[in-house]
Amino acid sequence: DPAAGPLFSDLVADGDTLSGTIYIARTKSDDPNLEGMKDVLHKIGVTKGKAENRIKNAKNDPTFLLSDAELVAFYELYNIDRFKLEHLLQNFFSEAQLDVKIADRFGKKVQPKEWFVVPFPVIDEAVKRLMDGSILNYIYAWIANIWPRSV
């Protein structure tokens, strides 16, 4: 119900429970297919723990494109289902989801689904609009001629 107020706030009150963290990461991959889009390629994920810990082993994790990653931003969540919020954000940017398959350490092809070709300021704006409830008035339009989605 949009009239119920914002989904989360930057003010923590007594009794609030930390339910997770949305994190935005950027790959440090040296894959030439990603070179032209590294500044706009971001992973939108959630974690129950600290965002810094989530990216520590990125180079061994197919979810992180088997490459080191850097944390661009994180937003702590209180009193909210972190998985539903992650799903909402990822659906919002679904038109810009990266279409890539990579082989894991066993040679099995995996398709990471949390990477989006979206400039960080746009992601930050979407999170702020989630906070104030105004995201309902917006859609994200994909501009295919600027950045490709497939690699």
Structural account:
The structure is a single chain. This protein has helices at residues 51-54, 82-92, 120-132; strands at residues 18-27, 41-47, 69-78, 102-103, 109-110, 115-117. The protein starts with 17 loop residues before the first strand and ends in a 19-residue tail after the last helix. It is an alpha+beta fold.
Features:
alpha+beta; four-stranded antiparallel β-sheet; two-stranded antiparallel sheet; 19% helix
Largest sheet: 4 strands, antiparallel
Mean pLDDT score, rounded? 84
Apparent shape: globular
Q: Write out the strand line-up for the largest beta sheet, numbering strands in chain order.
A: 3-1-2-6
Strand content: 15-25%
Helix content: 10-25%
pLDDT < 50 runs, ≥5 residues: 1-6
Class by alpha and beta content: alpha+beta
Series of secondary-structure elements, N-terminal to C-terminal = EEHEHEEEH
Report the strand count.
6
Alpha plus pi helix count: 3
Query: What distance lies between the first and last C-alpha atoms, to the nearest angstrom?
Result: 39 Å
> What radius of gyration results from the CA coordinates?
16 Å
